């Protein structure tokens, strides 16, 4: 899934992504959906500014 992030968070999120690469993670994500007219529906997913990306503990991986 692709999630948009704030321009101000790009460097911070990139550093976190490098640290957590290959691990399962959890992060807050806001989804917005709008019913469309001629063009169909629209869906956006974004991570709130300053959100934390955390590795899932082993207990969640079972």
Q: If helices are DSSP runs of H or I spanning 4 or more residues, what is the number of helices?
A: 1
Largest sheet: 2 strands, antiparallel
Radius of gyration: 15 Å
Give the tally of structural domains.
1
As a percent range, the share of helical residues equals 10-25%
- Unreliable spans are none
Structural class: alpha+beta
Q: What is the element string, with H for helices and E for strands? A: HEEEE
Number of DSSP E strands: 4
Quaternary form: single chain
Strand order of the largest sheet: 1-4
Summarize model confidence as the mean pLDDT. Answer: 84
Could you tell me how far the N terminus lies from the C terminus, measured between alpha carbons in angstroms?
22 Å
Shape: elongated
Q: What do you see in this structure?
A:
There is one protein chain. The protein has 62 residues and is an alpha+beta fold. It has one domain (7-57). The chain contains one helix and four strands, in the order αββββ. The chain has one helix at 10-20, and strands at 25-26, 30-34, 42-46, 54-55. The strands form two sheets. Strands 1-4 form a two-stranded antiparallel sheet. Strands 2-3 form a two-stranded antiparallel ribbon. It is elongated, with a radius of gyration of 15 Å. The model has no long low-confidence stretch (mean pLDDT 84).
Layout of helices and strands, plus pairs?
Layout: H1 10-20, E1 25-26, E2 30-34, E3 42-46, E4 54-55
Antiparallel strand pairs: 1-4, 2-3
């Amino acid at each position: 899934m692709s999630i948009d992030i704030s321009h101000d968070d790009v460097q911070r999120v990139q550093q976190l992504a490098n640290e957590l690469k290959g691990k399962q993670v959890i992060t807050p994500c806001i989804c917005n959906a709008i019913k469309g007219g001629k063009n169909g529906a629209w869906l956006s997913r974004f991570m709130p500014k300053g959100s934390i990306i955390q590795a899932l503990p082993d207990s969640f991986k079972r």
